[in-house]
Write a structure and sequence with these properties.
By secondary structure, this protein is mainly α. The protein has one domain. Helix content is 72%, strand content 0%. It has helices at 3-20, 29-52, 64-86. α1 crosses α3 (64-86) and α2 crosses α3. The longest helix is centred in the middle third of the chain and has 24 residues, at 29-52. The chain is globular, with a radius of gyration of 13 Å.
Length: 90
């Protein structure tokens, strides 16, 4: 998938994941895109692991199913980022 498709998929998946995930997540449009791109990798890798049983770094495709997988991955990334950053606020 080319860079423009990654940016579009990242923007869509990150924005939807931020809208669905409860609570406030900071960051602007760049953070949303990065979150979506990371989510595409996380979701694609977890999906690959669950369907084939192999751990392979892969990304979700640019399709409806790929966007859903990327959104789920972005929500996982939001959760993990919240765990990492919550300790620094104490």
């Amino acid at each position: 998938m080319n860079i423009i498709a990654w940016v579009v998929l990242g923007l869509i998946a990150g924005a939807i994941a931020k809208a669905i995930y409860p609570g406030h997540q900071g960051g602007g449009i760049l953070a949303t895109m990065l979150l979506g791109i990371v989510g595409a990798f996380v979701g694609g890798t977890v999906f690959q692991l669950l369907t084939t049983g192999t751990l392979q770094l892969t990304a979700a495709s640019f399709s409806i199913g790929g966007i859903i997988v990327a959104i789920i991955g972005a929500m996982i990334a939001i959760f993990l980022w919240g765990l990492v950053t919550s300790g620094s606020n104490a």
